User: What shape does this take?
Amino acid sequence: MNNENKISWKLENSYLLLPDALYTRINPSKVDAPKLAMFNYVLADEIGLNFKNTTSAELAEIFSGNQLPEGAQPIALAYAGHQFGYFTVLGDGRAILLGEQITPSNNRYDIQLKGCGQTPYSRNGDGKATLSSMLREYLISEAIHHLGIPTSRSLAVVRSNEKIRREQFMESAILTRIAGSHLRIGTFEFVSRYHDKSTLKKLSDYAIQRHYPELLQTDNPPLALFKTVMHQQIALVVNWMRVGFIHGVMNTDNTSVSGETIDYGPCAFMNAYDPITVFSSIDHYGRYSFGNQPAIIQWNLSCLAGALIPIIHDDEKKAIELLNEILHDFPYLYKTAWLKMMCSKLGLFTSQNDDIVLVEDLLNWMKFNKADFTNTFLHLQSLPVPDEEIYQNDAYKTWLQRWQLRIASERQDAEMHKQLMSAHNPVYIPRNHMVETALKAASENDNYELFMRLVEVISKPYAYKAEYSAYQQPPDPEADLHYQTFCGT
Ligand code: AMP
Ligand code: MG
Assistant: This one.
């Protein structure tokens, strides 16, 4: 084989250098007659893997876990987490990390199979995943990536022959997930609660080395890590709020140290603007509703702070004081970043204190009129939107005048305001009804036409195309009110 045809696995597993309380070595379960459902050739290329001369059957063998890539040393990771506020010991119950691929540009990415069988952390679960939920993760994670938001990514979905038991028997599949790492706030919580200070310090050093090596030079690296993770998570949640994304299950085990969106379960995009929007079937009290996401990330960060106490300072009181001092800045930092983002959505290059009134008045108008979050900003950009009528109402027109005056107060020209807006306002998001129709056709009828089309549409979410007008259409509001998403499917 010449170099051009080589697959080029370059797998390491730095996690194995950590104390063994943090993982268990285990191989993926073998799968009968695996079939490739989706493969992301662009992503493969980005991480230095060339599969141009690999057949679908061979890809299915590799990405089902049947045939381990060269250099793989599979492990399941140990972690805990606060789920809906309650501490639980968890771990990779249905995921196995094959190793870390070192890319040609020297980046390190976890290669993880999800839905590949039981591990010591499976508790009562079967270690499997449904085809529909893995296709869903593929689609939504790719959408988030193309929206320019840090996220784990999806390389492959491989169907297996086995039907698994959920509400009914369903097709199963394995997803290959690529992530900066799978270090979670819950990883720290697990070590802090059950292991010694030296293990906690090793985990912290590892996280810093892997994601923020510049922090090793600071006086108190674990404290600097805390501050940096807080900044990364603020940036991440602000981005979710920008595009109307509801993660749906922001447990601390689903909050990454790298600042990437991870764990796509009951997530969905909001259509009509309402901060209390919740789609997850188990989120009865709206803990993870759209508008509650900033408060929850702050709460999750306080769990990280708690877990780090032993390695911040020998004097516990002093450690708490140092961590609190950082956490204390959260509300101000979040609000400032959020306002700047909302101003950008409105085409404003600066954000002044008064702008909060302008922004909130628009949001309140949207809420009262059940206006579509995505399309309202497109209307401001003078792009065609499906429901024009709503934008003829007087309250909106009055607001529009205030906005135009504010725009006129900046020195940039109209074209520049438009460019700023189009960089922050997606034209296409994966609309719930479109996602469900595409998933149904793919998982129940083996028809991937709609799914592939949706993958194509979400891959350029900021570029308006007249032929994609159907993808701008919000669902019937009644149907969206009853729309439900699910967790461990
Ligand atoms: P998630 O809701 O995906 O964040 O999962 C929460 C926890 O449940 C994690 O420890 C998962 O590994 C575990 N889990 C979810 N589904 C399954 C399953 N089918 N079998 C075993 N463990 C699972
Ligand atoms: Mg999880």
Notes: The chain has a mean pLDDT of 96. The chain is about 40% helix and 15% strand. Residues 11-179 form one domain.
